[in-house]
Amino acid sequence: MPLTQAKYLAQSLISKPAGSGILPGAGVEGADIESSVLFAKIIPFVIGWTINLAIGLSVIMIMVGGYMYLTAYGDTEKHSRGTRTLIYAVVGLVIALTAYGIVSIVTSIKLS
Question: Does residue 37 surpass a pLDDT of 60?
C-alpha cells in the first residue's frame, strides 16, 4: 500500500542526523539538550559574554564619537569622522540589543 508523501514524512524519523559524529552535541534529542553541557552551559555563556562585550564597546564608541564631534572646532574632517563614529556605534548598539532580544526569546523556549 503506497504512502503519500505527507504520510511518509509524518511517519519518518531521523535516527541519525547529519553531522552527528562530527559536531559536538549534534544528534542530541530534545529531552537530552538540557542535560548536554554544550547546550546548557557553554554556548549560552559565550553568546551572553559576546553580546555584553558588543554592548559595552558600542557605548564606549558612542562616548569616543561624541568627544571627537565636540572637539572638532570647525575642522570638517574631524567633524565628519566623529559623526561617522557616532552613527556606526549607534547601529552597532542596535544590532547588539536586537541580538540580545533574539537570544532571550530563543532561550526562553522550552523543548518538549
Answer: yes
Measured in degrees and rounded to the nearest 5, phi and psi for residue 34 equal -65, -30
What is the rounded distance in angstroms from the CA atom of residue 108 to the CA atom of residue 102? 10
Q: How far from chain centre, in Å, is Cα 92?
A: 13
Kindly report which listed range (18-32, 66-80, 93-107) carries the lowest average pLDDT score. Answer: 18-32
Q: What is the mean pLDDT of residues 30-43?
A: 64
CB 27 within 8 A of CB 16: yes
Global pTM reads: 0.62
Q: What is the DSSP string of the chain?
A: -PPPHHHHHHH---SS-TTTTTSTTTT--GGGTTT-HIIIIIHHHHHHHHHHHHHHHHHHHHHHHHHHHHT-TT-HHHHHHHHHHHHHHHHHHHHHHHHHHHHHHHHHPPP-
Cα angle value 32/34/35 (rounded, 5°): 65
Task: Please give the average per-residue pLDDT across 73-91, as a whole number.
Answer: 95
